[in-house]
Amino acid sequence: LYHTQEHQGQREVAAYVRSHGSQVDLAFAAALGELDAVRGFLKPNGSLDALAYSCHRQPNDRMENPSDKDVISEAFVWSCFNNRQETAAFLVEQGADLHATPAIGGRGSVTALHRVCLSGWAEMAEWLLSIGADADRKDDKWNSPPASWAAAMGHTKTVKVFADRGQIDREDAIRAAENGGHQDVVDLLRR
Predict the structure, then answer these.
(1) Which end of the chain offers a freer environment for a tag, N or C, measured as fewer CB atoms within 10 Å?
(2) pLDDT of res. 105
(3) pTM of model > 0.70
(4) CB-count burial class (<10 Å; 0-12, 13-18, 19+) for 42
(5) Coil, strand or helix at 104
(6) Please, are residues 90 and 39 in contact by the beta-carbon 8 Å criterion?
(7) How far apart are CA 129 and CA 162, in angstroms?
(8) CA–CA dist 85, 71 (Å, integer)
(9) With a cut of 50, which residues of the chain have pLDDT below it?
(10) Residue 23 CB contacts under 8 Å (≥ 6 apart), including other chains
(11) CA distances to 9, 63, 68, 70, 131 from 53, in Å
């Protein structure tokens, strides 16, 4: 079910499954933006309920003996990836790591900001940058910073967020946009 939330066009499937009684853990609730459910996983002493991290995951997505902070940080990444800023902000208040790299889909070293850029959530990217997300952090597969992910996908508005803030490796982003066939992004970055 997590992978149904991973792509913008499939979030409705996850919401449908949830509306028909699917159990959720913290990450699933965060991805759906169910802030009350997210809050429900926190015990009065600040620790997480045992059901906050469940077995819904594929084997390559599972963390071995995660700490509460690991679980909260993973949920933060899912909330960002699904453009749920209110939920993401709550999870930051609970100690989520802005630079966490949970192995979603078996891919590590990919931050919330990378995933937001992949999806083209410009306002979420702006918010993450405003609270200190690292615009220069590179993933370990393509060795690219988040803005280059947005450029490769042709997300002009998201690329513009980085360019306007002066937080972009223009040459790397231009290469990514050219490889993706996104001339509008190339033109934006050459201005």
Answers:
(1) C
(2) 56
(3) yes
(4) middle
(5) strand
(6) yes
(7) 9
(8) 18
(9) 1-5
(10) 54, 56
(11) 25, 9, 9, 10, 26
